[in-house]
Amino acid sequence: MNFWERIYLPSIVKGLGITIRHFFKKIPTIKYPEEQRPYSKNFRGQHSLKRDEQGRERCTACGLCALSCPAEAITMTAAERTKGEEHLYREEKYAAVYEINMLRCIFCGLCEEACPKEAIYLDGPHVTADYLRKDFIYGKDKLVEPVFDIKKLNQENTN
Amino acid sequence: MEGAFILEKLILVVIVFTVSLVIAMYSTLAERKIAGFMQDRHGPHRAGPFGLLQPLCDGGKFFFKEEIIPAGAHKGLFILGPTLAIITACISSAVIPWGQTLEIAGREVSLQVADINVGILYIFGVVALGVYGIMLGGWASNNKFSLMGAIRAASQSISYEIAMGLSIIALLMVTGTLSMGEIVAQQSGFVNWNIWVQPIGFLVFITCAFAECNRVPFDLPECETELVGGYHTEYSSMKLGLYMFSEYINMFVSSALMAALYFGGYNFPFMYDLGLSQNWITIIGVLVFFFKIFGFIFFFMWIRWTLPRFRYDQLMNLGWKMLIPLAIANIVLTAVVTIIKDMYF
């Protein structure tokens, strides 16, 4: 090593320069949850059971989604539609209990592809953390999409 | 000694003590924030805006943790170790001149707790005592790794004390006095700062200051990769907090020392040409002094996140075979220049 390398001082100064350059650079970290990165267009998040234009649930508890699920995350119990419930369900068979275990689900989207009634879509946000395993079994209260007003939605879409 | 004198010294002691503790506390936050910015990430930013309440959370954490004393440890020495460390760290701030004199209610209050005429010697004595805190901690822990850390710390400290003392001898030849108050008073303005007359001495001094504070690149006594925790492996809760605190207070006092000895302390350029009253010169001087201290503390942290650690034999080599000859050469050079100056100018 020559004299300048042996006294270490020039290389120390060079190193200090590199560090101070990084001090002033823009930091790429995002402070979640105040800032969030946008999802991509094809992001598969939480499931949502859709309704038709009249507000009736589309799902008929045919079981094709449960059959196609590679992780066996979906379970359901079918029930028959009674006289006064025509405005709630499309066809005579509906899912009384519909549960997806989010810890088993791998968000592959095969249930979305298998559904013949276009009832289930993976368009929600990612699953957030929770404390107990049983709280990850989402029932109909978390999965069925809320009731919407088709006239208002059409107005908003054309505006 | 009248009551007013005792009262003013007491108030000054309390203020200096509080200020050094608060600065040490926020140095821990500054260290993590600066480390974050240099590593392209945010430091702590959850506890309060910009993480400003983080030191309070850390203090609270230290209060609530369980105090464990290992089974084979010598109880008395185990507790004495961090006690000594924090005491020596705090008392070394007594001789530093924080500013010139303030005029309050007709009295001239000096902003230096104790202007003894051997100020620098006092600081060296206290720093040498500080080694005991580490050695006791390592020995009393009944742990191989702690002992290794303590041995390394002790040998490192005594090796670099010598070079530090030699660089101060050269400074002494220039200033002619050991009293801290007078050394700083001699450096009024900007061109009188001792850095211009003692650059090599300053280089030796700052290297030794890094070694005395056990800061990277000389932090072998407490490195995590080689010694688990070094001398503070077995410590938990408040005793560990005191060890870490004493390190930051040492860093603060070393920065204050460097600023006072070489960079003019509370003096700033054009201090007497602006036509300010004595009180204003003092107050601005104190602020300028703290600005220099914070600059040095930033430099300590800047170096920490830039340099790798010295290996033990490289460290000893540097201390004995490179710094001591350099410091002696500095003394000889200073002597020669002083004689030439006296003969011809």
Secondary structure elements and their pairing?
The complex is a heterodimer of chains A (159) and B (345).
Chain A: H1 3-6, H2 9-23, E1 47-49, H3 64-68, E2 74-80, E3 93-101, H4 110-114, E4 120-122, E5 137-138, H5 140-143, H6 150-158
Antiparallel strand pairs in A: 1-4, 2-3, 3-5
Chain B: H1 3-38, H2 54-64, H3 75-91, E1 101-104, E2 107-110, H4 119-140, H5 144-175, H6 180-185, H7 194-197, H8 199-212, H9 224-227, H10 237-262, H11 278-304, H12 312-344
Antiparallel strand pairs in B: 1-2
Helix pairs in contact in B: 1-10, 1-11, 2-10, 3-4, 3-10, 4-5, 5-8, 5-12, 8-10, 8-12, 10-11
Features:
heterodimer; A: 159 residues; alpha+beta; Alpha-Beta Plaits; three-stranded antiparallel beta sheet; two-stranded antiparallel sheet; 6 helices; elongated; B: 345 residues; mainly alpha; two-stranded antiparallel ribbon; 12 helices; quinone (chain B); NADH dehydrogenase activity (chain B); transmembrane helix (chain B)
Walk me through what this model shows.
Chain B: One of its GO terms (molecular function) is oxidoreductase activity, acting on NAD(P)H, quinone or similar compound as acceptor. Chain B: It is found in: Cell membrane; Membrane. Chain B: This is NADH-quinone oxidoreductase subunit H. The complex is a heterodimer of chains A (about 160) and B (about 350). Chain A has about 160 residues and is of the alpha+beta class. Chain A has a domain of about 100 residues: Alpha-Beta Plaits (2-Layer Sandwich). In chain A, about 25% of the residues lie in helices and about 15% in strands. Chain A has a three-stranded antiparallel beta sheet with strand order 2-3-5. In chain A, strands 1-4 form a two-stranded antiparallel sheet. The radius of gyration of chain A is 26 Å and the shape is elongated. Chain A starts with a helix and ends with a helix. Chain B has twelve helices and two strands, in the order αααββααααααααα. Chain B has a two-stranded antiparallel sheet. In chain B, a hairpin with a 2-residue loop joins strand 1 and strand 2. Chain B is globular and about 65 Å long. Chain B starts with a helix and ends with a helix. Chains A and B meet through helix 2 of A and helix 1 of B.
